[in-house]
Amino acid sequence: MRGGPKTLILALVALLLAVGLVACGGGDSSDSSSTTEASAQTQAESKPSSEGSKQDKDKSSSNGGGSDKSQDHSNEASKFVPKQHSDSGGGSAPYKTKGGDNSVQEFGGEADSSEFDSASATLHNFLDARAEGNWVATCEYLSSNIKASFEKVAARAQQVQDKSCAGILSKLVNPAAKDEFKTEAAEADVRSFRSEGEQGFVLYTVSDGTLYSMPMSNEDGAWKVSSLSGYPLSGPR
Q1: Cβ atoms within 10 A of the Cβ of 164, count?
Q2: Is the pLDDT of residue 72 over 90?
Q3: Tens digits of per-residue pLDDT, 216-226?
Q4: Could you count the other beta carbons within 10 Å of the beta carbon of residue 106?
Q5: CA 63 to CA 164: how far, in whole Å?
Q6: Is residue 233 a contact partner of residue 95, using CB atoms and an 8 Å limit?
Q7: Domains, the chain, with CATH or none
Q8: Which of 30, 54, 144, 164 is the most exposed place for a label (fewest CB within 10 A)?
Q9: What is the DSSP letter of 221?
Q10: Neighbouring C-beta atoms of residue 145, cutoff 10 Å
Q11: What is the DSSP letter of 47?
Q12: Chain segment 8-51, per-residue pLDDT in tens
């Protein structure tokens, strides 16, 4: 499950390129592929219509079209059913590195059991919804500052018809990451939740022992995920 953050970043760069927010430059084949797809979509959607209602109908079908898109979102949200997960816990102490950067491992203090359970459930639900490609459900577990960032991007992206959190996520996330997301969702084992005030970090491992941190924000008493992907703090063990 390596490279997940990179695939998300590459997809974001491709989206920004498509709306002209960053300059186009060289890159590896995956960058080129993502950019090409985004550019092709932009050109297709901005091409003047010469086939009347047929093309309008096709475009409406491919982009969701008005209120139908909102209805699709409602159905999508109702399809997500949280799964049961078993976490090992144990705290962050075993993951401190002598002489290394332990800023996350030592952030705040270990949360009590109720906060651990709450934050862990949020993380698992986020990962599961993301793995299913259920963007409405995914957005329910994202912090408001992340969703606000999406709205700023969407406001500048004329080719993005649906400017909701789910709509922008459907454009932002690279479909090639689907298998990685499924693997991470299935393997994530929460070891620690450290918090201070309204901020926190969930520390979790996957099957190869890699340790990831996911920033969290407390909003009205509920913990929300503050990133699209966990950050690796260590390599495989």
Answers
A1: 19
A2: no
A3: 999 999 999 99
A4: 12
A5: 13
A6: yes
A7: 87-232 (3.10.450)
A8: 54
A9: T
A10: 11
A11: S
A12: 444 454 444 443 333 333 333 333 333 333 333 333 333 334 44
